[in-house]
Amino acid sequence: MKTTKLVQESTSVMEMKGICLEFFSAYQEKDIARMLNLCTTDGLVFFEPLEELGTGLINEVGRHIWITLMDCFPDLDNTVMQLDWNEEANAVHCRVKIFGTQQKEFLGIAAQGLRFDSDHIFIFKFDDQTKIREIRILWDHENFLKQLIG
User: Fold this and answer.
1) Count of domains in the chain?
2) Which pTM does this prediction carry?
3) Less Cβ around it within 10 Å: N or C end of the chain?
């Protein structure tokens, strides 16, 4: 009986990690509809360094930020470096390298054709149907800005 529960739990964890990888695959392909389809309609996003500006519904705030990023950085890409299950937080923590070259004004920063390369932490929480219900995103925002200002 214990073995069956352990197998179910590990399958669920593997499924959640797979959904995270699918999210980043959609991000690479700039397929925002696919990214959002992996999330609940009332899911929340927290782009931590942006404080209130980066906090809200995934389908609104997240969608807007990702559309803007993809527009301003047409070669935007990511590499998933690590995925860990955090049992205590009941969440998948992903260490992801995100990079791209700025081609349009972003956050008031004029485009100079400079490239950024930034480590991000994404923390995904899921509902009972393994849909993403919360995403927290952290990065060194000062370093990100320095790379774009030159």
Assistant:
1) 1
2) 0.91
3) N
